Records
---
Amino acid sequence: MQRHRPAWVEVNLDSIANNVRQIKNRVGKDVCVMATVKGDGYGHGAYEVAATALRNGAGKLAVAMVDEGIELREAGIKAPILILGMSLPEHAAEIVRCDLMQAVCTAELPAAMAQEAIRQGKTAKVNIKVNTGMNRIGIRPEEAVPYAKSLLALPGLEIEGIFTHFATSYYEQEFVRLQFDRFRQAIDSLEAADIHIPYKHCCNSGAVLNFPHMYLNQVRPGTIITTAAPAQTSEMNLDLRTAMGVKTKVVFIHALAAGESIGYNLLYTAETPRQIAVLPIGWADGLPSDLANKGNVLIHGKRCPIRGRICMDQTMVDITDVPGVAIGDEVVILGRQGEEEILPTDWTAIIGGLNSHVSLRCLITKRMPRVYLQEGEAVGLRTALRPDLTQLVAQ
């Protein structure tokens, strides 16, 4: 599959399919899986992750913003899509036109959506967002009944769901229980007022792993669709697999004499003669600059240290202890080569501050072509710089 650039991302669709099936088996047939594919599918490709998730047990999708929903619609995705973030009233026409569901917690946005629904001859669907402690967006639990009644008074509008978001579900239990209790209070107050909302969801990835009694009738996993993550207890672990690998090739090799330095600001100076390989990948591709003089890559199955500052488009590595390296040899930035493996958590340990290895995956920019693999074969290619070479994965 032609792609020109000798630096690319590999996304294993079999791993994503496995993860979604694991999630679906865990939650059961009566619980809908809403696959969260925001942030370009956590850097893996929103369309490809969405299509694979829908084929393997997901029933709905969630994104962060209107444009992400429109992108999926234009790619041919017909499944229900929920916009999790707040949109402005001026976005109502596009939301309704594209049959997107919208999270709501204000008066203005649902009113604009209802008006557009009538104008377009459609029904606009919304999900009420309840703030139970994350303190970003949402109504308070005690506001659920009056707010729902205000929505029900709008012609052309349908309340499809109600949800909240957990702040600590990966590693903590007490605050999760508090949030769940608050959410249940909101649901119970609605039921007591004879307001029956079809879908209730609060479980993000951490809660899917750790709190099965909180599944209700819909879950909203994101991270664990593409990335292995542990549960709080080993018995709750799922057989999850990490889908992304980042690779490049050696494009130049040169000798560095003792006393010579490398790159901007001369951050590395050789104490002894060294062999240096140059890689055509840099911080503009998402390689964190904090890996300078600390990170490693894999060549011939051996760890080779990054030397000097990571440049915008190039990175230098020390290959002195790996004999036989030649121009064109494959280099693994993230992933496995031979018996060695570099994980996103290795980056996290070096960088610090970023407490989620998933956020590092989102750093890999669209400048990097994505090659989609199934059963070891390339079945799709997405390359922003050469859209003429893009081959979408079949739905």
Note: Residues 244-355 form a domain with the Lyase, Ornithine Decarboxylase; Chain A, domain 1 fold (CATH 2.40.37.10).
---
Amino acid sequence: MRYRSFDEDSARWDGFPFRHGDIVISTRSKSGTTWAQMICALLVFQTPDLPAPLTSMSPWLDWLIIPRDEVLARLAAQRHRRFIKTHTPLDGLPLDPRATFIVVARHPLDMAVSLFHQSANLNRDRIAELTGSPRPAAGERRAEPRSMRDSLIAWINRDVAPAEELDSLPGVLWHLRDAWERRNADNVLLMHYADLSADREGSMRAIADRLGIDVPDARWPGLVAAAGFDRMRARADELSPDPAGILKDRNAFFRRGSSGAGRELLTDQEYASYLDRAATMAPPDLMAWLHR
């Protein structure tokens, strides 16, 4: 299936020359993408001192901002084990058996809250410049922004086709339902953001085991510490996903990193309504795992 938006096109994966051992990180926005990239970088290089900015080592292949040929040339020149970012669901990717596909799931409400803050941190004039999309006419009045709570409720209730807006609730659960159905495949690893938070070392060891990467015991403490939220935020200039200057503040990209922010905003009735709506889009076992 092909997924397209104003700045992404999954067709850029067509004919991609995979190598044995490639790692593809498939997540929804604000669901742990950069965290998973950092963990893969630490496991591949086995040092917190990375040889280049994270976005350079782990490019976003689907992103239309950087020409595809440029991204492919960068990946072709890499001699280390490659780890590539995508926001495309697995059914939109060529699931080459030589690669391992890591999907990170996050509680949808927490993801939505992070998206709200991320939206405020985007330089939309810069995005319009890079994508060629029209800018607001001079003097055009912009709608008053919703509160975070109102935005979250609107996000929960938005009725849209999953492929039309993958960062909507239908889109998030479409992505995760597909990964859930493939979770027992030899080359698919489904991780939960909450597990990364609660047991970072255990999660990193599980990823290393699935990728067949042997890490000497003496190196684990430094790698685990380097993957911590505060350590990553302190390195925002080299770790934030901003190769084209679309963020107003790179430090703000690493805002909170914890779970529960979405639930805190809703009444019990509103949360029950969210659960009822989400249950129409995903199977009960996935819902139980996602919301535990």
Note: The chain has a mean pLDDT of 88.
